């Protein structure tokens, strides 16, 4: 077995590989850019080597820099993780020439399967059903429009070397095909150093289901079930689960056997994933093969008990697979939620900055359930603009899908993240969505269910009452603490009342609290009675309560006259007042936000790539105004309505902060 492995990656996947290597008694070497000097993977590894400036194209994907780090560290093998150089045949070739083992497939398999155009042709030649499309190279936007018309709209423009949703656009007409072609080329070039684009038919209402394969160099190949990855935003997976709630055993077997046959046809070794789109009749079509470890591999590990990273290392060491297809048993259900540094209230735009608070739920491994959090950050660390915005992968396992979902809900509610925008509220909303709960999902789920973006969750009355009762009990505890101030004058003790009014999410509840040693009994004006208990102390930012015999986890912030409460995707101000205070509050005028309707504000920290208008230009509804680049993605800002540009406050190349004014209109 290897003595030392270098991880040619960063973030959570580098930390994930280090954990397994440590378990196997293998020393690890991390690499890092200037931006990652204090990163968690650097702290976890046995040693670390600096490889360049923050941009990935000057550090993590520069083969010469990585090879120099391998040589200086004396590493015998390299695990590439995902992204960066993981599917780069030139990197695999350089390692082979240096006599260093690549913890991944051979160069030939990467070339054949890692390139989407080539893999499509091979799949077609092998008789695998594929989506209609044009696999040749496309020279310019005019040719892209012509091909799109021949295939028939809608079409998908995809970077040949792409992954993670980078370099992908859906076009429904000629204008979108022309615009999408150029944006896809730009993103592909900056993310992968390869701007080749191909086009295929976009199948509406599909499910994205993938098969995990594992092959060794001795001719053995197995599949480890499937993963349902249909909940995506901008072609980027957000929620994954295993197994799929849609497949039956016969379809699973057919997909698995086809995936293994395709892998073995190209001499594949190591772990890999064959992706399919599946229609409502369970017809499946080969989409692509990812010749690397997938981001969502933990859900497969949780239902099979197989450590995929360990298997990859053993295969790279020349060992035979120790398990056969007959040994693979799917046990229970696993769900993964990707926590991104993206603000759902701002259209999921990237958010960067310091993690002033980062407290994930406690990891648990029990016979009844598992909570697992794969992460590459820590409290006090920074989320950089240079890399993918994923913060962590939160996974839960339980014997049934319903139980796994309930465990995930509780884990999300207790996950504390402050300092940046993040998608925890959105993930909580998805876990409670009736369509997700039923398993009736497609890749159009987010677009269909949140067509106007995410604006938070309005909770049902029963849940609001539970929160109101908990907040009233918490407020009473805080009031008693304030009443017990030392040094007060005799006969000036302040009495804490029992009658309160709680206002939240446009609802108002009058109630009476009767407290005892075990908790509080809250009686609402309409006679509803709720029992509240829990150990919350003023200043705690997490309240784990029991209300009406059911757990209630609240993230708590202090505001004047109450709390900021976040739970189950809702973010609300909860005001707890005496009856007289509530009466006066109802007479107060509402404070309105400032008018920014005649301004174009920067929605995220980023770099202006280009401005499409000038002072005096008349713009139309939907017209492109400027392009902002952040976290390797180009974002086109468009006019919300007709207007005339009166002032431009920024230019191409400027770095802007959130809410900086880019343009002003008459």
Helix count, DSSP H or I runs of 4 or more residues: 17
Radius of gyration: 27 Å
Instruction: Give the structural class.
Output: alpha+beta
Helix content: 25-40%
Largest sheet: 9 strands, antiparallel
Mean pLDDT: 92
**Biggest sheet, strands in spatial order?**
14-13-10-11-12-15-23-21-20
List unreliable stretches of 5+ residues: none
Count all strands and give the number. Answer: 40
Shape: globular
Observed structural traits:
40 strands, globular, nine-stranded antiparallel sheet, 666 residues, eight-stranded antiparallel beta barrel, 27% helix
Describe it for me?
It is built from 17 helices and 40 strands. The chain starts with a strand and ends with a strand. Helices cover 27% and strands 33% of the residues. Helix 4 runs antiparallel to helix 5 (107-114) and helix 7 (141-151) packs across helix 8 (174-192). With 666 residues, the chain is an alpha+beta fold.
Helix/strand layout:
Layout: E1 4-7, H1 11-23, E2 27-33, H2 40-44, E3 47-52, H3 63-73, E4 77-79, H4 89-98, E5 101-102, H5 107-114, H6 116-125, E6 133-134, H7 141-151, E7 155-159, E8 168-171, H8 174-192, E9 197-201, E10 207-215, E11 221-233, E12 236-242, H9 249-265, E13 270-278, E14 284-290, H10 297-304, H11 308-316, E15 333-340, E16 342-343, E17 349-350, E18 353-354, E19 357-359, E20 364-365, E21 370-375, E22 382-383, E23 390-398, H12 401-413, E24 416-418, H13 424-432, H14 434-438, H15 445-449, H16 461-483, E25 499-504, E26 507-516, E27 519-524, E28 529-534, E29 542-547, E30 550-559, E31 562-567, E32 570-577, H17 579-585, E33 599-601, E34 606-611, E35 618-619, E36 624-630, E37 633-638, E38 643-648, E39 655-656, E40 661-665
Parallel strand pairs: 1-2, 1-4, 2-3, 4-5
Antiparallel strand pairs: 6-9, 7-8, 7-9, 10-11, 10-13, 11-12, 12-15, 13-14, 15-23, 16-17, 18-22, 19-24, 20-21, 21-23, 25-26, 25-32, 26-27, 27-28, 28-29, 29-30, 30-31, 31-32, 33-40, 34-36, 34-39, 35-38, 36-37, 38-40
